[in-house]
Amino acid sequence: MAAPRIVTFGCRLNAFESEVMRGHAVAAGLDDAIIVNTCAVTGEAERQARQAIRRARRENPKATLIVTGCAAQIDPARYAAMPEIDRVLGNAEKLDAAAWRGNARLAVGDIMTLKQTASHLVDGFDPNHAGRARAFLEVQQGCDHRCTFCVIPLGRGNSRSVPAGDVVTAARHLVAQGYGEIVLTGVDLTAYGGDLPGRPNLGSLCARLLALVPELQRLRLSSLDPVEIDHTLWRLLAEESRLMPHLHLSLQAGDDLILKRMKRRHSRADALAACARARNLRPGVALGADLIAGFPTEDEAMFANTLALVEDAGLDYLHVFPFSARPRTPAARMPALPRAAVKERAARLRDAGTVALRQALAARVGTVASVLVEKPGFGRSEHYASVAFAGDHQAGAIARLRLTGVDGNRLQGAAA
Length: 416
Fold this sequence. Notes:
With 416 residues, the protein is an alpha/beta fold. The chain has three domains: 5-109, Methylthiotransferase, N-terminal domain (Rossmann fold, 3-Layer(aba) Sandwich); 134-364, tm_1862 like domain (pyruvate-formate lyase- activating enzyme); 368-415. It is built from 13 helices and 18 strands. The strands form five sheets. Strands 1-2-3-4-5 form a five-stranded parallel sheet, with helices on both faces. It has a five-stranded mixed β-barrel with strand order 14-15-16-18-17. Strands 6-9-10 form a three-stranded parallel sheet. Strand 15 (378-380) and strand 16 form a beta hairpin. The termini are far apart.
């Protein structure tokens, strides 16, 4: 019998949950299953998922094909109607071991009614990050905000946090498995703790993790809302070397009117202030950002403000999304730009990101980096830069390397 195969689209949260599902599928005896974990952030992500579903069925006519994830949660009937699919599981059900032992074709509950996180972090938690040195750890689910472009709350529900004690238990388990770096992830990570007794925040969770899991070598964070970074987290950035000097910010745009129409909680000035504060507290910090190109009503001057943000904020890494109208969101009803204009602006943003990244990499040449080895000859520095090197360092090791040059979007390193 073949082991279950999982095809994952989208975010780090999905990547983490795919490993949880793998364990549930094996325990349920679904050795021949193909599981497609979908994303709904863009129409293109959904198109690619449907394409993968059809291809999987053509190539594996006898396999059990199960579809889950945000796209399946938001529009379960559409996926249940696809003849290639045997079962559709919702985002809550996919983390419930009992759901994998069932046989209902459609098992998708009302995720908006959920008040607590699933127990998968401590109940049989055994992610198999095969061959990987970095482990994702889900600490938060859902989102209470309603940005006008975003459909994800419909797929993930309202914000729910994992109690800190459970996170510490899971982190200890991962460290015992040999992982050198843990990445905390969630839908709205900086909302962590708002639903828990005493309302702890993300900074207090990080402080507790670092204090109670001293064997943890590196702690990294996924996407952060720039105006919701708490005081404790800023302090840790300045003082704690095990918290990686790399922040990825959910900025989305650099024009105040577009940010208002997106219903974001920050202004352009807020974004610039957060980036400046990070650099002041941790000189050399690497900054990344999510940016949307071609939001409805965006004119050339508004786009120019977003384009200029790359340099003004000193961004190193960009994750660029061409605007994609999502059903049931307010932005889908706003005056849309021609698709060609959206794609052209996304290309210009990506070009700016390429220039910014290469400049940032060049500035690190001659310095010494701590590189987490992900596979022979390749790893990532504390600043999340890709580094290629010669040598026999094993996956999971942290190598001290002198950065000797740049090759495209990757640094070159040699033994320090």
